């Protein structure tokens, strides 16, 4: 085989493999154009008191509800190797957070062996593209996320993420059946939300990564947690109802769009029955979509709203 032919074959093979193994910002931005994840709908009517030179009147505006891609949550085995290539430098290994991986080769008989995943929650970069896409449906609500803003980097959250302190002593960690992703009764238990760290027992690598992603989302959507993080929350105001705390299995609090190892155009909650592609390097990423409601301001005083 001559050199030119070898080069051509190599180029073709690279072109086939890179979209599967690499996650870049352009791919994440394009994933925000998802009607299923957006789930735009008219939710009610808002009432405003408008006063001018000729007196006061009550005006109305439409209340809308839809989801916004607030963050990209990565869950990955090797410290310093976030699958989102452009933000990898945000979470390198350091003196208190080195190595990674787990003690399993993902066989079904190894469910007593521990796995470990790092997690990063970083602001979704597709805000501008998403706004143009969503505005085609009508009035839109802003989300809480800021593009590329690190809300949680587990390499900086060493005590909680690698030692489960103090959450290993919480009732949620010690009580079977409390804060579980899935359930034992249904035979589809993926894992426990608490303690919200990187270790868990799960032979299925995809499910292990999903549980860790849910834990990261749980932390950043609450205030005052014993973690090193920034809350991913917006403040309510007149005519604006932001997303609250993320709750496992509850789509009304948030949902997940897989970005890698298999890009999805739809959103779901964990656990789900969709096809689960196992990542070759144990690295996964999802976009976290959160629900918001709002209405256009039509007066100086907000009088209230009625939902359909």
Keywords:
two-stranded antiparallel ribbon; alpha+beta; 27% strand; single chain; elongated
Characterization of this structure:
Strands 1, 2, 4, 5, 9, 10, 11 and 12 form an 8-stranded antiparallel beta sheet that branches. The chain is an alpha+beta fold and 308 residues long. It is elongated, with a radius of gyration of 22 Å. The termini are far apart. The longest helix has 19 residues, at 3-21. It contains 7 helices and 12 strands. It has a domain at 23-35 and 68-124 and 151-238 and 248-291. Helices cover 21% and strands 27% of the residues.
Brief rundown of the structure:
With 308 residues, the chain is of the alpha+beta class. 21% of the residues lie in helices and 27% in strands.
Biggest sheet architecture: 8 strands, antiparallel
Per DSSP E runs of 2 or more residues, the count of β-strands stands at 12
Say what oligomer this is. Answer: single chain
Straight-line N-to-C gap? 69 Å
Question: Rg from C-alpha positions?
Answer: 22 Å
Which ranges are low-confidence, i.e. pLDDT below 50, for 5 or more consecutive residues? 1-20
Order of secondary-structure elements: HHHEEEEHEHHEEEHEEEE
Query: In DSSP terms, counting alpha (H) and pi (I) runs of 4 or more, how many helices?
Result: 7
């Amino acid at each position: 085989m001559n050199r030119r032919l070898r080069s051509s074959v190599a180029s073709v093979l690279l072109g086939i493999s890179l979209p599967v193994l690499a996650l870049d910002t352009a791919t994440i931005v394009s994933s925000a154009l998802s009607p299923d994840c957006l789930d735009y709908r008219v939710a009610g009517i808002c009432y405003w008191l408008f006063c001018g030179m000729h007196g006061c009147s009550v005006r109305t505006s439409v209340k809308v509800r839809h989801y916004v891609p607030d963050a990209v949550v990565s869950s990955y085995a090797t410290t310093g190797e976030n699958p989102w290539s452009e933000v990898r430098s945000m979470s390198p290994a350091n003196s208190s957070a080195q190595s990674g991986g787990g003690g399993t080769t993902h066989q079904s008989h190894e469910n007593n062996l521990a796995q470990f995943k790092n997690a990063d929650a970083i602001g979704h970069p597709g805000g501008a593209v998403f706004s143009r896409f969503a505005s085609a449906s009508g009035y839109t609500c802003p989300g809480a996320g800021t593009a590329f803003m690190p809300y949680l980097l587990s390499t900086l959250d060493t005590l909680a993420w690698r030692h489960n302190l103090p959450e290993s002593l919480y009732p949620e960690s010690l009580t079977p059946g409390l804060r579980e992703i899935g359930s034992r009764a249904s035979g589809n238990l993926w894992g426990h939300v608490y303690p919200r760290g990187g270790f868990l027992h799960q032979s299925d690598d995809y499910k292990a990564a999903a549980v860790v992603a849910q834990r990261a989302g749980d932390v950043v959507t609450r205030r005052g947690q014993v973690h090193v993080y920034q809350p991913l929350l917006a403040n309510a105001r007149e005519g604006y109802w932001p997303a609250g705390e993320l709750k496992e299995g509850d789509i009304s609090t948030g949902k997940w769009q897989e970005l890698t190892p298999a890009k999805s155009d739809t959103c779901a909650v964990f656990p789900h029955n969709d096809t689960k592609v196992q990542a070759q390097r144990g690295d996964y990423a999802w976009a976290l979509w959160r629900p918001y409601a709002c209405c256009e301001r039509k007066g100086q005083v907000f009088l209230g709203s009625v939902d359909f």
